[in-house]
Amino acid sequence: MHKVERLEARVNAETKALCQEAANLEGRSLTDFIVASAVESARRVIRERELIDLSRRDRKAFVASLLNPPPPNRRLRDAARYYERVMGKR
């Protein structure tokens, strides 16, 4: 069984009324609405951060491979010979 944790937030009356109205429209309790909204927002933030970090890492790897390309492997050399044989040397 999962231990249930308590999460508290103090908001002004306008914010509470807005959240309550949204919860009512979805047929949920205020607590359920707020928890679901917070979880959805947290997952989005984490996903966006992971994409940014991945993009930065990919960009660095791409530039590194352009500046210091690895030598062609056997399959690439075979493909080049095949191309020259089929297309003729250019």
Give a brief outline of the structure:
The chain has 90 residues and is mostly helical. It is 73% helix and 0% strand. It contains three helices and no strands.
Question: What is this structure's SSE topology?
Answer:
Elements: H1 13-26, H2 30-67, H3 74-87
Describe this structure in words.
- This protein has 90 residues and is an all-alpha fold.
- The protein has one domain.
- The chain has three helices and no strands.
- α1 crosses α2.
- The longest helix has 38 residues.
Which short descriptors sum up this protein?
90 residues; mainly alpha; 3 helices
Distance between the termini: 70 Å
User: Average pLDDT, to the nearest integer?
Assistant: 92
List the total number of helices: 3
Q: What's the Cα radius of gyration?
A: 28 Å
